[in-house]
Amino acid sequence: MAIMGILLKNLYPEQSIQSTLSPNEITEAQKGSDCCSCPKGWIGYQCNCYFFSGKLKNWTESRSFCASQNSSLLQFQNQDKLHFMSSSTYFYWIGLSYHKDKKAWLWEDGSSVSQDLLPSLQKLNTEKCIMYSSNQGILDGRCDDDSRFICKKELI
Question: To which H or E segment does residue 92 belong?
Answer without folding.
Answer: strand 92-93
